[in-house]
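The following record pairs a protein chain with its ligand, guanosine-5'-monophosphate.
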Amino acid sequence: MAKRRTQKRRGRLFILSAPSGCGKTTVQTRLLRAKRNLKRSISATTRPPRRGERNRRDYFFISEVAFKKQRRDGAFLEWARTFGYYYATPREFVEGIRRSGRDALLSIDVKGAAQVKKQCPETITIFLMPPSMKELKKRLSKRGTESETERRKRLKVARWEISRARTYDYIVVNETISSAISQLKEIIEGVDRQ
Ligand code: 5GP
């Protein structure tokens, strides 16, 4: 009797973008805890680690030389330069997640999201929106990880990113963490049913 092959489902690709200071990390952590089949892609960056960040858990912290070599070798699905540093999604890392049947969550900026959507139009893109610019400013200063100049730069980029939100498949307003999580779960579960 011929052996029957069980074909593993290929995982889907989700992108979550948000302006800096919007609370994306918190929302993302809670979402990953709630959706066990969703796995976060770990990006490579040339930015130095912030206090509490760990190599290979938060980012692959690499040098600019290593970044440029990997980029030349085609190791990145997308890349962008933001706030003076390079960021990229390692292609093989994401492929590994999807091959294992799990969905991949890319937490990347607007420029990177556009590159992925162009290559993989089936990607589901979600923009996490701050309730207002006033609230975003408040959250950024409360975080206190950046200098005043850096904060101003991030707010300027935030304004531009918010203007690109309409290019996303979904917009979720981060009014409260729990309402954002339930909306994100609804989106993911809705896609699962398709
Ligand atoms: P942070 O330095 O605050 O961790 O991230 C700064 C920005 O870089 C955020 O908007 C974040 O979404 C974005 N980012 C993080 N990883 C990647 C990536 O792999 N590719 C792109 N294009 N952006 C990324």
